[in-house]
């Protein structure tokens, strides 16, 4: 029991060509470019994107050095008279969180 006035998705085989691709107009009359399918017709070449290794990359390299060199050395040099909860849980947590946040920030472009 399917009807066109039920408000939900109803599969319409006549909306597709014989090779399985969608027609240029959907059932609402919008073209494929208007409905957001333009990227499938004209995809952007990744080489045209601005992906230079700039200052964001150097910030990420600095945070990697902190996370992989400074944090383990600080754990190693933590005085044994102090609490090991801080040395084994808190000291690795901050560089790991900083590295994760910096990696997302450095790889996303506005």
For this entry, give a set of tags.
2 domains, 110 residues, mainly alpha
Provide the fold topology.
Layout: H1 38-41, H2 55-76, H3 84-107
Description:
Keywords: Membrane, Transmembrane, Transmembrane helix. The protein has 110 residues and is an all-alpha fold. The chain has two domains: 10-45, no CATH class; 52-107. Helix content is 45%, strand content 0%. The chain has three helices and no strands. Helix 2 (55-76) packs antiparallel against helix 3. The relative contact order is 0.09.
User: What do the pLDDT scores average to?
Assistant: 76
Distance between the termini: 47 Å
The low-confidence parts are 29-33
Q: Count the strands? A: 0
Question: Radius of gyration from the CA trace?
Answer: 27 Å
Structural class: mainly alpha
Reading the helices and strands in chain order gives HHH
The count of domains is 2
Strand content: under 5%
Helical coverage, percent range: 40-55%
Tell me the number of helical segments per DSSP (H or I, 4 or more residues long).
Answer: 3
Describe the global form. Answer: elongated
**Largest sheet descriptor:** none
């Amino acid at each position: 029991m399917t009807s066109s006035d039920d408000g939900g998705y109803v599969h319409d085989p006549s909306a597709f060509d014989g090779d399985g691709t969608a027609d240029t107009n959907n059932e609402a009359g919008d073209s494929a470019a208007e409905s957001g399918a333009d990227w499938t017709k004209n995809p952007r070449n990744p080489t045209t994107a601005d992906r230079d290794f700039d200052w964001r990359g150097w910030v990420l390299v600095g945070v990697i050095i902190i996370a992989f060199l400074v944090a383990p050395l600080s754990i190693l040099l933590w005085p044994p008279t102090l609490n090991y909860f801080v040395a084994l849980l808190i000291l690795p947590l901050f560089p790991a969180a900083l590295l994760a946040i910096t990696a997302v920030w450095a790889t996303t472009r506005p």
